[in-house]
Specification:
With 167 residues, this protein is mainly alpha-helical. It contains six helices and no strands. The mean pLDDT is 90.
């Protein structure tokens, strides 16, 4: 039986690819500036060196590499989680085991205790929608269920992260 491809996982991969390309582009630009300014430093001395180095650092900071690395990390994590959830749904036949595995990879136990009903509801909807999409019919309705429930799962994981930061 062939597994149908789902747009959600393809979009997560595309976001990761775009983030990677943006980081690569910025890193190459920073390195080009480094090379350019190192060449220019050979032709200046004294106070001009300090000024030139400061100018180079300002230009390099404008690329916001730290923010780009963070974006790349977030998209990698999102892709990994979406991929793991899809793999579980497609490979674990027992529904309760499948649901439990998804909960375990996405949520900490203390968060699950506080938000059990809501988390269970969204994971169940995601699971059923994806199973329907993969095994029965890749319909717009099944796609909508998967997207909506995954959006709620991501909202819950964001809430979990905020709670962890506040603690």
């Amino acid at each position: 039986m062939a597994i149908r491809r789902h747009h959600l996982i393809e979009e997560a991969k595309a976001e990761l690819d775009l983030a990677y390309e943006e980081v690569k582009r910025a890193e190459q630009a920073v390195m080009a500036l480094e090379f350019e300014y190192n060449e220019r430093l050979h032709h200046v001395s004294g106070g001009a060196e300090t000024e030139l180095i400061s100018e180079k650092e300002r230009k390099q900071e404008a690329f916001n590499l730290d923010a780009l690395y963070e974006m790349q990390n977030e998209t990698a994590q999102r892709f990994a989680l979406v991929s793991a959830a899809f793999a579980i749904v497609s490979s674990v036949a027992d529904e309760e085991m499948s649901l439990d595995l998804i909960k375990r990879i996405l949520f900490r136990r203390d968060f699950l205790r506080r938000h059990k009903l809501e988390v269970d509801r969204h994971i169940r909807a995601f699971h059923r929608g994806l199973r329907e999409y993969m095994r029965k019919e890749s319909s717009a309705e099944a796609d909508s269920t998967v997207r909506t429930s995954w959006g709620e799962i991501e909202r819950m994981t964001s809430l979990q992260a905020k709670e962890a930061k506040a603690a």
